[in-house]
Request: fold
Amino acid sequence: MSRVGKKNITLPKGVTCTREGSLIKIKGPKGELHKQFHPAISVDISDSLIQVNRPDDTKVNKALHGLTRALIQNMVTGVSNAYKKTLDIVGVGYKAELKGKNLLLSLGYSHPIYFMPPEGIVIETPSQIQIIISGIDKELVGLVAAKIRSFREPEPYKGKGIKYSDEHIIRKAGKTAG
Reply:
């Protein structure tokens, strides 16, 4: 049996879960999330416990079992504690600032980059070289962080670019004069 799939999900106080067919809705203090899951996987909901079960031990159902449980756990965690990713900007003259809800990035190109965050994502810039992305949907927070990072990925020689705050850039040696 799947090690991830067989664990039960406990609902914290203030979080409710409802099921309509294969659609799971989770509501909490931070907001509401809903997601459609594979109909073969059954989700049993009691007062403060969610249990995910699979019908048989086929390879597909084993994979869906752990995946479904992990996605529901991420939804429960998101509506009770929002997810957060921090990006750091490294480089002379590189900076970020908020213009309303939009993010304005100056990354050494001949033009500034305007990024409009999707619904449900909050972007903060405590300083010109730091960006904090937060929201209740873990997948969406990760996608937005990856999109912003892709505007100027860190290069291996000087480490200039946008990187995750916990990311370590492996540096390469530059040219050596002979």
The chain has a mean pLDDT of 93.
